[in-house]
Write a structure and sequence with these properties.
Blueprint: E1 2-7, H1 15-31, E2 36-38, H2 56-72, E3 77-85, E4 94-102, E5 105-111, H3 123-126, E6 136-138, E7 141-147, H4 167-173, E8 178-183, H5 191-206, E9 210-214, E10 216-219, E11 222-225, E12 229-231, E13 237-240, E14 247-252, E15 257-258, H6 267-285, E16 291-294, H7 299-312, E17 317-321, H8 329-342, E18 345-348, H9 352-366, H10 373-394, E19 397-400, H11 404-409, E20 422-423, H12 430-443, H13 449-453, H14 473-485, H15 490-497, H16 501-513, H17 515-518
Parallel strand pairs: 1-2, 2-3, 7-8, 8-9, 16-17, 16-19, 17-18, 19-20
Antiparallel strand pairs: 1-14, 3-4, 4-5, 6-7, 9-12, 10-11, 12-13, 14-15
Length: 551
């Protein structure tokens, strides 16, 4: 049989838009003489719907949409993801399901057994798990249908499994000849390789073809890369969709041949593509067209501006330079040059007089106290107020420009540089910021070289450098990776890398004590395995006598 994979970008709650897209792709597949088309997990309602599934009207709209899709796609069989009612002792009212639509009707329903609760996933909160699954017959073959996590528990691949059952083993053991998996698997760096290796292990161990269709697009903090593919019984790629864009591919289960699309390769390329896609979808799906961001002349705002232009077009990006009393002439010139190179609107709004007015107003209160970080934060908060004013006046979404290294240790100002609606590079460590800036310039040299080469500085006091408060970013990022992503103790990190134990403990304390800032930050785009946000949940009011558990 000939099967298509419809790799589509859905919007959570957009039943009419999602249905139209499913119907369009199904008709395209039908016109190509295909027998069956697969769509991603919860493609009818969009993924992740989170607590929307608790609203009865949401579940009802989902049902009506599926019935309409079935009527409009006769002549080709369709498998799509949907919500179905649950009769469960768990107290959950719905299941995460997949439906086979054929001849205008729902011919078969399979529901998800394995509901992830790690990292960004919290599916046990919203769904009841299926207690069993079964094969379905299609054109004389027994097909095994699974939903995303159902395929992520193979004992031949994982050293430590999270679940006591393996739906794939059960279905193939019952006689399944082809494994189908519909997914909404979020992107992070090297995730594509992990998916391939995991499913290749299944294909080779069970000697069956494996097809995985994955959602593409950004929904809130999550970016879905698509990258759908089909593997033959030997683990070889026989069909492959594009990454970071919608696509329609097909394969033949008998000849084991299919469409193979080219993909962007390399860490920098995939990270940049994910950030562009996530920015575009967040802005548009939230109802905005234009964005505004502060351009300081630094590398973080430069990279963010490049991402915004590639995501939205230069005509929809506004840069605002807000030089203060400690801003260098070079930084102002670099911001203006970047704006010219990108072709974006650039406004210059000096903050010196406003900062002085704050000082005069607060002088009686601050009498007898020397200037300190308070005055630095005032400058950042003046800029935050100005950028929000531009946002309000022109209806632009504010993009914040802070990176993961700064956010990790709290080297940022609440209600200042943290103001905004989307933190584009908040999951990009500073060392990766430099790599991405060089990647951008390898395509077209738009970021001034002086921006890349000069020592990083917040420019909030005279001759300030980031190195005054932080270790070199190569060291800081290595510590943060071990402490945040791998949960290693500071003393273990120190021993492994040969770093000063006091330095590592200091960084761990900065991370722990900055949780209150991160929980008030704008949503950020996740591109690492462990990002700040709802995939990393730590208390704010917690008594940790020694940061990081060190002695």
């Amino acid at each position: 049989m000939r099967i298509a994979l419809g790799q589509i970008n859905t919007v959570v709650g957009d039943f009419s838009g999602n249905s139209e897209k499913i119907i369009e792709y199904a008709r395209r597949a039908r016109s190509g003489g295909l027998d069956l088309i697969l769509f991603p997990e919860l493609s009818v309602c969009g993924y992740p719907p989170r607590d929307l599934v608790e609203r009865p009207w949401f579940v009802e709209r989902n049902r009506l949409a599926v019935e309409n899709i079935a009527r409009e796609t006769q002549g080709i069989a369709v498998i799509c993801g949907l919500i179905t009612p649950a009769n469960s002792s768990t107290g959950k009212s719905v299941l995460n399901s997949a439906a086979l639509l054929r001849d205008g009707k729902i011919a078969f329903v399979q529901s998800k057994r394995l509901l992830p609760t790690y990292d960004v996933f919290d599916e046990m909160r919203n769904f009841a798990p299926a207690d069993r699954q079964q094969l379905f017959a299609f054109d004389g073959q027994q097909l095994a249908l699974t939903i995303c996590e159902d395929a992520w528990n193979d004992k031949h691949f994982w050293d430590r499994r999270l679940y006591g059952v393996d739906p794939v083993e059960d279905l193939i053991g019952a006689g399944g000849k082809v494994l189908l998996n519909i997914s909404a698997s979020p992107f992070y760096l090297r995730k594509r390789e992990l998916r391939h290796d995991m499913l290749a292990a299944i294909a080779t161990n069970y000697r069956v073809p494996v097809a995985m269709v994955n959602q593409v697009g950004g929904n809130d903090s999550l970016v879905f890369d698509g990258s759908s593919f089909v593997l033959g019984p030997g683990g070889e790629v026989i069909a492959q969709a594009k990454s970071f864009e919608e696509d329609l591919i097909c394969f033949d289960t008998e000849t084991l041949t299919g469409d193979v699309r080219a993909r962007d390769e390399g860490l920098e390329s995939s990270a940049y593509s994910a950030l562009v896609l996530g920015t575009r979808d967040y802005v548009h799906k939230c109802g905005f067209r234009q964005v505004v961001l502060g351009l300081s002349g630094g590398i973080d705002s430069a990279l963010t501006a490049c991402i915004a232009v590639d995501a939205l077009g230069r005509e929809n990006v506004v840069g605002v330079g807000m030089p203060g009393p400690y801003s260098s002439r070079g930084s102002i010139d670099d911001a203006a040059e970047l704006a010219r190179n990108l072709g974006i609107r650039f406004e210059l709004v000096p903050i010196g007089d406003i900062f002085d007015a704050f000082g005069k107003a607060l002088a009686p209160v601050f009498a007898g106290h020397q200037p300190d970080v308070t005055e630095e934060n005032i400058q950042a908060r003046v800029r935050g107020s100005l950028i929000m004013a531009v946002s309000n006046k022109f209806g632009c979404l504010v993009l914040t420009t802070g990176n993961k290294s700064e956010l990790g240790v709290g080297y940022c100002t609440l209600y200042g540089d943290m103001c905004g609606g989307l933190a584009v590079i908040s999951d990009v460590p500073k060392t990766l910021v430099y790599r991405l800036a060089n990647f951008v310039n390898s395509r077209s040299p738009v970021i001034p070289q002086s921006t890349i080469e000069k020592p990083p500085s917040a420019e909030l006091r005279a001759d300030q450098k980031d190195s005054d408060s932080l270790p070199p970013y190569e060291v800081l990022d290595a510590i943060l990776e071990d402490y945040i992503a791998d949960n290693k103790a500071p003393d273990a990190i120190s021993a492994e890398h040969g770093y000063d134990p006091d330095l590592v403990r200091k960084i761990a304390c900065m991370v722990d004590k900055s949780e209150y800032k991160r929980q008030q930050a704008a949503p950020g785009l996740k591109i690492s395995e462990k990002a700040f946000g709802f995939g990393r949940r730590y208390p704010i009011a917690a008594k940790v006598e020694v940061c990081g558990g060190s002695d």
